Structures are given as structure tokens and as C-alpha cells.
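Morning F.,

Quick status update on the modeling queue. The single chain you submitted on Monday has been processed. Sequence for confirmation:
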Amino acid sequence: MLLLLCAAIFVVLALWGGEDAPRRVAATPAAAPAAEPMVVQASYISEAPAPTGPVVPLVLPLVRSDAAVVEALSDAPAPAETEAEIRYITASSVNVREGPSTEFPVVGKLSRGEAARLLWTEENGWARIILEGDGMTGFVSGDFLSDSAP
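C-alpha cells below.
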């Protein structure tokens, strides 16, 4: 029985075995004729095309580190800072949005009495605000903003 099993394993390995096993010619599929490679004509432009508009020279400012220049700049008055317009939320909860309408996604929420700096107001009544503490910016409806704290 053992001898029969070994003979069967040998025959199987001989026919369908590893790389050293003899191959049957009939089991090999016929080779397909080699297809002609497709050749595509490519073009190469060796030089960049000439600009069509007028040529504008690059002019850089002259920077000097003279003591007189530094002194003149330090004596100049500082620009006046504009006073920030602080607004307070009057509703119990207000959505802060990415854009100036309810069609934009909500980026945060504000509660009654929270202060925000008004950057500008859109024509449709929405106000661009920034929260000083966390730097969150967005739009809220101007109907929910007041000059005085509630």
C-alpha cells in the first residue's frame, strides 16, 4: 500500500511537479503571434516660445542701512490704531458660519453675552466677527449683535 502511494506521488510530481519535471507538449498552449508595437510620433520643442506681450524689467528697491535712514524711520509717528468695535451676542445661542448666509456650514456657536470684534458687515446684514480668545472667525447675523452687553 505504501509502495503504491509513493508511486502515485511520483507520477503526479513528474507530470505536474516543479521546474525540473518534464513537460507535456500537448498541455502547453500555442504561442500567439507577436503584435506589432504601436509607434506614435512625438514632438519636442527645444526652445521656449517667445513672450507675446511687452517685456517689463524687474526693478528692486534700493535698501540702505545707513544710521540716518534708521533714525528717520524711528522718529516717524506710529500709525494710529483703529478702535475695535466690540459687539455682544443677544440671542441665547447663535451659529457662527463660514459665509454670510444660512447656506454655509456652521463653524462654531456663541452664547448670550459673549463678546466678539466686528470686522465688517455685509450688505445682507451678516457680520464678519473674530473671537479674540480662540481666534475663531466667521459670520453671524447682525440681528443678534448689540453695542451693549445684555
